[in-house]
From TrEMBL:
CDD domains: ABC_Mj1267_LivG_branched. This is Urea transport system ATP-binding protein. The keyword Transport applies. The keyword ATP-binding applies. PROSITE patterns: ABC_TRANSPORTER_1, ABC_TRANSPORTER_2. It comes from Paraburkholderia bannensis. It holds the Pfam family ABC_tran. Keywords: ATP-binding, Nucleotide-binding, Transport.
Length: 290
């Protein structure tokens, strides 16, 4: 596909291939060249930040931050309060414009030149700390609405898509382990279940890169481990960046070989396996304590 490499679809099957083709031609005819779901990862990198700086009233929240995420990688980011982790996600998703630096999705998409909705359509899904689900609607409908939000102007094709859409919803329910709760109102779910539902809603939009900001906050130990299992299952189907303070959760995601980035004062303080960064003197001083 023009030298582009597609990441695997999270669900191995993409009922919207046809619709996306139409989207591409529709969008192209309006003078844009962004192809939904297609990111050039031919060099193996899905996200690239170089010397990114952001100041708020003279305070440097990000200070020449540089990091790269491999396609398919699950990267954990840790660091003290105020290190700039959330600000980094704000920059990646277009919520905050950096004062300087490069931010690229794949080889070709300059995120500093794109707005929030365009970045979301290009394949970046973001999970905020607080779950935002439609409490008054059943779980099933939450997933359906998430899909419609993505394909809004394809409503006319719905009749044809319905059967595939249903299959996609069922697959997602299985991934987030909410099959038996499909008919319950989202408002009745536990905090951990709501968090999983929101991840399911993001998956309905087929993200290539998922950003999760403290997804385990406020969860019980069991819910936290269930979330780790879910994210580990998504490995390889989309790239992920997970910001988290809970070290057991980070250990469950990083394993022995996964790379962990430690941020402090707006830049990368250390980088390596969890064991390596835990032994790093500067990390012990500024974050983990003795
Ligand atoms: N919109 C803003 N206006 C002014 N200052 C801000 C703004 N957003 C963030 N900051 C400041 O930038 C710094 C980095 O904040 P950020 O929220 O990115 O840190 P964080 O690493 O996510 O911390 P935490 O672990 O507590 O979530 C903090 O000192 C914060 O007060
Ligand atoms: Mg934060």
């Amino acid at each position: 596909m023009n030298g582009h490499i597609l990441l695997n679809d999270p669900l191995n099957h993409n009922p919207f291939d046809e619709a996306d083709t139409l989207t591409v031609s529709g969008v192209a005819s309006m003078g844009h060249v962004i192809e939904p779901g297609v990111i050039d990862i031919s060099h193996g990198t899905i996200l690239y930040l170089e010397d990114v700086s952001v100041s708020f009233d003279g305070f440097r929240a990000l200070n020449k931050l540089s990091l790269a995420i491999d396609a398919g990688e699950l990267r954990c980011v840790i660091g003290p309060n105020g290190a700039g982790k959330t600000t980094m996600m704000d920059v990646i998703t277009g919520k905050t414009s950096p004062d300087s630096g490069k931010v690229f999705l794949g080889q070709t998409l300059d995120l500093t030149r794109m707005n929030e909705p365009t970045i979301a359509r290009a394949g970046i899904g973001r999970k905020f700390q607080k779950p935002t689900v439609f409490e008054q609607h059943p779980v099933w409908e939450n997933l359906e609405l998430a899909m419609k939000a993505d394909k809004g102007w394809f409503a006319t094709l719905r009749a044809r898509l319905d059967r595939d859409a249903q299959a996609k919803i069922e697959q997602t329910l299985e991934i987030i382990r909410l099959e038996s709760d499909a008919r319950r109102l989202a408002g009745e779910l536990s905090h951990g279940q709501k968090q999983r539902l929101e991840i399911g809603m993001l998956l309905m939009q087929k993200p290539q890169l998922l950003l999760l900001d403290e997804p385990a906050a406020g969860m019980t130990d069991d819910e936290t481990m269930e979330l780790a299992t879910l994210l580990n299952r998504l490995r390889g189907s989309c790239s992920m960046m997970v910001v988290e303070h809970d070290m057991e959760f980070v250990a469950a995601l990083a394993g022995e070989t996964g790379r962990v980035t430690v941020m402090a004062e707006g830049r990368v303080l250390a980088h390596g396996t969890l064991d390596e960064v835990k032994r790093d003197e500067t990390v012990i001083e500024s974050y983990l304590g003795r």
